[in-house]
Amino acid sequence: MDYEVMIGLEVHVELNTRTKIFCGCSTEFGGAPNTHVCPVCSGMPGSLPVLNKEVVNKAISVGLATNCDITRNSKFDRKNYFYPDNPQNYQISQLYYPICRNGHVIIEVDNPDGIDPDTMHTLWSDPATDSKCEEITESERTEKGKKLATYKKAVRIHEIHMEEDAGKLVHDGFTDETWVDFNRSGVPLIEIVSEPDMRSAEEVVAYLEKLRETVQYLNASDCKLNEGSMRADVNLSIRKKGSTEYGTRTESKNLNSFRAIRRCIEAEIERQIEIIEDGGKVVQETRRWDDEKGYSYPMRSKEDAQDYRYFPDPDLVPLVISQEWIDNIRDNRPELRDEKKIRYKEEFGIPDYDIDLITGEKALADLFEEAVAEGADPKKASNWLMVETMRLMKEHNLDADQLKFSGTNLAKLIKLVDAKEINNAVAKEVFEKAIFLDNLDPEKYVADNNLSTKADSGELEAVVRKAIEANPKAVEDVKAGKGKAIGAIVGFVMKEMKGKCDPAEANRMIAEQLKNI
Amino acid sequence: MQDILSISAVDLGKKIAAGEITSVEATQAYLDRISAVDKDINAYITVMTEPALKAAEEADKMIAAKKAAGEELSPLAGVPIAVKDNMCIEGTLTTCASHILDNFVPTYTATAVQKLIDAGCVIIGRTNMDEFAMGSTTETSYFGATKNPRDLTRVPGGSSGGSAAAVAAMECPAALGSDTGGSIRQPASFCGVTGIKPTYGRVSRYGLIAYGSSLDQIGPLGKNVTDCATILEVISGHDAKDSTSAGADETSKQDERTTDYKFTEALVDDVKGMKIGIPRDYFLEGMNEDVKKAVLDAAEVLKSKGAIVEEFDLGMVEYAIPAYYVIACAEASSNLERFDGVKYGYRTSDYLDLHNMYKKTRSEGFGAEVKRRIMLGSFVLSSGYYDAYYVKALRVKALIKKAFDDAFAKYDVILGPVAPTTALKLGESLSDPIQMYLGDIYTVSVNLAGLPGISVPCGEDSNGLPIGLQLLGQTFDEKKIIRAAYSYEQYRLNNMSLKCDDIFGKEA
Amino acid sequence: MVITDETIEYVGILAKLELSDDEKEQSKKDLSDMLDYVGKLNELDTSGVEPMSHTFPISNVMREDEVTNGDDKENMLKNAPESNQDAYIVPNTF
Predict the structure, then answer these.
(1) Domain of residue C26, CATH code
(2) CATH number of this structure's domain A457-515
(3) Is there a cis peptide before residue B159, judged by omega within 30 degrees of 0?
(4) Could you tell me the residue range of the domain that residue B168 belongs to?
(5) pTM of this prediction?
């Protein structure tokens, strides 16, 4: 029996505002426990929430970038449930009038095996034109000469709402107690709720990557799954192919990496198929994924009634969003990836492959643009990012936003190489240092550490003379027309100079001196 | 010292400003009075003897310095004021009259209280109340009932019963209370003092431990209208810490009344041409005849002073109580979730696990009336009932507001009783909750509609118990009701030869 | 409206209240009486009436994104029934 998988996602994104959503406490990561805490975010009696305007701005900007309608009269509701990470025992969220609704994003999914024609059905209509769109459109992308089949489809967004994050619970194994830290309590979140439009783990990953890229480009969040600034809950159901009714869905939580999401989806599909094949029924429930053990288990308890008694929070007033406010956000929106791609091609003329890689991370794109603005040649800047940067990121397991190197300093480095102040080997050495150090100025660093490979010609001349004297065999060979033999002399020079000279320059000088012998 | 105790807060402020008496002397006089009578009345949960005397010393220094510098003094500088025990004061036990908070010491001060402190007032103590302000008798307090100073066998009303009794028994010249469904006006009426429930949004709720967030307002209780208007002027104003406080957002900026806090300007003995409506539907069967007569006599007084007084049908009167209890209990059930034994207050000594800890802590920490309201509130918000009860009540609230809007299109002020009866005997009402709730019939609709209301004494019943007159205004029309109340009070003081001594001088 | 034992049990879970048998009986009666009384609201036709939250027009009350609070840990934790120098302590939740 063939099954169709329906997956919808609830994605929580921590917004990178300076302060919490309802109080003036810092959102900075990593403070000592309970040091970014006040009466409001620790649920003290008599305290009252006051909304952070920047949270609304960022939520609207994400909504616009994901083609949502902005709710003109929005409100906050209380979601009531008891848990120690939730200091008021209600979370301020939005149920009835979320800030954004009815959006969609277009995802591009790798599909090396070709598309299964069965999954090609029309499901989505474009709200802007009201015309039916093919859910899936095929395209081909060339990557380093290899043809990659991909397809595009729309994933609809049901709504985006604003809410507050919970505190952190830490288990103390020694006393078997739990410690409660409210530093994260009240950090602003948006929850992006999709329709059940995804059909595979690949589509889910493509959707999450699209969201992450969009939110990062908007400078609304760093979106790190492993640090919890982006979290995805997976709602999944299956149905027999051809059926039009939805199956019973489960919600899986605790997914901290793309790998965990893939594995959880695959396991959950298998689990649900097994239940149905055995004649059973899937139970609607929330399950917790254990990535180490590779299975999920239900999170229910008798004390969790899952009845949140939502009602409008009387401590907060309505949010009325004017067209002017929306226009202002739209007009000041940062450039998104797709727009950058087009511009890079037109403005810098660098290859598609480069553009794809550089714009894959906003931090890289920022570095690139800064370097070019400081006068670096676009292709050279791009090469540094694609080759050395990628290698070092992989080697040291770094994210792009952890690179300490600035675009300005990259431009300086390129200039030093162009001016032959340093050779490539030294440049790479400097670069590797610089990615870990704040604002390392290559010019100053090269000077301070005496790394210039533009050796003074007197010194180089002397060494070349010495090299010629020390390598009579090589000299003979060169004179006999074996041009390659010069390598041995150059090698001698480089060794004597401890690498601090330009090999081309050494080459030139050797040839000149040999002429005179 | 009897003299100091019987004069009004504003008069005491004048004496202090004039150097006739120091704040320390006045504070000591009240502390002595409390020591003498509070064992019988139980108006206070905490008497702040040492901090109050220290604050009084500071006040005396501040007053001297300001006088030397020729700076203006607040009319309340140096005056002792009592504060209901549901407003947070930094470093001071704040219990809400509940076991669950009986060791809670806030790290912050309610804005309204801070404004009094900034004006040089001396906070003298924390007054008793119904637990979490849920009740109208002050009998649900974990610290025992407060007695009515006018008759110790009777309740002082509630929930600000401690504040009203403290003023009536001359244990303070004035006090702050809070009013969610009548909790300032009804005890003021029962104890024969004056109280104002301001327009919702007029006084910041920051630091007020919430009962029904959309209904709660802090307000003054005092010996007369002048004291109440003066205190209200000090504590009013927009507060950036309370999103629901009026006066700063674009919409409320368009209405200048939202930022007009000069309530003492309305202390004018003149009601000529003022249109006053009396809702016929307020005078129901079963209402105490003495109350009815006293209230209608008061209307005659205002008429004789030139007001245009008419009877009219307000409508919606009988729907206010059910709508109120749905909304107030729903909000309370959520507001009181934070009392869970984790961050502050009481935690049960013995539990199996987290949820057992929650349940035992809350069941042991809350009293019966609080639990009753939490159960009702949780039920009406629960899945399947939300629309039928909670949303329905919000729609009825809109109809009640409309009924008042229609009335205020015709009248400046609405006049009626505060409560259908005078103070009941202790223990008389607790057994039948609905009967108890019915006593709130004239007060709760005012909170639902967010209106300002004032309660002023207007006579006594055959048992010598005080009766209160209630005057209501449109939102942000405090000045109108203050003027009407002041005019009535002047008549009463001049023509019934009542002096403060007569009212407040009785030994408790 | 008749309130069953199950309803009282359920509302007790929502409200985190554990009632004794006597309290449960009382609560059944109280809740039932109150709901009957509140049922009076159904006499009113409220179709087309917008549910009212705020009684006067107010909207868009917001603050700027500026840090205004410092570290008040010590004071906050002083009120905790159980804590160590860094955190509130609750029974094991894991």
Answers:
(1) 1.10.20
(2) 1.10.10.410
(3) yes
(4) 2-244+256-315+402-504
(5) 0.89
How close B444 gets to chain A, by Cα (Å)?
A: 17
- Whether A44 sits inside 8 A of B106 (CB atoms) is yes
Tokens representing B365? 């920490």
Q: What are the backbone angles phi and psi of residue B386, rounded to the nearest 5°?
A: -55, -50
Judged by average pLDDT, the poorest of A439-453, B259-273, B464-478 is A439-453
Residue B8 falls in the annotated catalytic set: no
Q: Is residue C83 one of the residues assigned to a domain?
A: no
3 state SS for B154-181: ECCCCCCHHHHHHHHCCCCCEEEEEECC
Q: In sequence order, what E strands does A241-318 have?
A: 250-253, 286-290, 295-298, 311-312
> pLDDT tens across A282-314, in order?
999 999 999 999 999 998 776 777 899 999 999
Task: Give yes or no for B242 touching A (CB within 8 A).
Answer: yes
CATH number at residue B54: 3.90.1300.10
B15 is catalytic: no
Domain assignment of residue B378, yes or no: no
B304 among known catalytic residues: no
With an 8 Å Cβ cutoff, are A317 and C59 in contact? yes
Q: What is the ipTM of this complex?
A: 0.97
Tokens of B360: 């035992």
- Number of domains making up chain C: 1
- pLDDT tens profile B395-448: 999 999 999 999 999 999 999 999 999 999 999 887 777 778 888 999 999 999
Q: What are phi and psi of B480, to 5 degrees?
A: -65, -45
**Inter-chain residue contact C50 with B395, CB threshold 8 Å:** yes
Check whether A80 has a pLDDT greater than 80.
yes
* Cα–Cα distance, B118 to B234 (Å, whole number): 9
**Is residue A309 within 8 angstroms of chain B, CB to CB?**
yes
CA B317/CA B403 separation, integer angstroms:
9
Contacts of C52 in chain B (CB under 8 A): 394-395, 397-398, 401
Most confident of A330-344, A413-427, B159-173, B428-442: B159-173
| Interface check B340 vs A, CB under 8 A | yes
Q: What is the DSSP string of A450-507?
A: T------HHHHHHHHHHHHHH-HHHHHHHHTT-GGGHHHHHHHHHHHTTT-S-HHHHH
Which chain B positions have a beta carbon within 8 Å of A78's beta carbon?
334
- Tell me if A45 and B210 make a contact (CB, 8 A cut-off): yes
- What is the residue whose two structure tokens read 């990259």? A410
Task: List the domain range (segments joined by +) for residue C25.
Answer: 5-41
Q: In this complex, do C58 and B251 lie within 8 Å of one another by their Cβ atoms? A: yes
Identify the pLDDT of residue A118: 46
Tell me if B369 is assigned to some domain.
no
Neighbour tally for A436: CB within 10 Å? 14
CA dihedral B237, B239, B243, B244 (to 10 degrees): -20
Minimal Cα–Cα distance from B19 to chain C, Å?
A: 39
The secondary structure of residue B506, as a DSSP letter, is: S
Considering only CB atoms, which chain C residues are within 8 Å of A97?
A: none
B153's tokens? 């066998």
Residues sharing a CB contact under 8 Å with residue B233, sequence separation 6 or more, in sequence order: B261, B262, B263, B264
Sign of CA dihedral C39, C42, C44, C50: positive
Q: Does B210 touch chain A (CB under 8 A)?
A: yes
Tokens of A142: 């060339």
Q: What are phi and psi of B111, to 5 degrees?
A: -55, -45
Question: For testing the chain C interface, which of B90, B375, B476 should be mutated: the one with the most C CBs within 10 Å?
Answer: B375
The reply to whether residue B341 touches residue C81, judged by beta carbons under 8 angstroms, is yes
Write out the H or E segment, with its range, that includes residue B279.
strand B275-279
B47 has which bridge partners? B125
Q: Which one of the listed residues B160, B163, B183, B429 is annotated catalytic?
A: B183
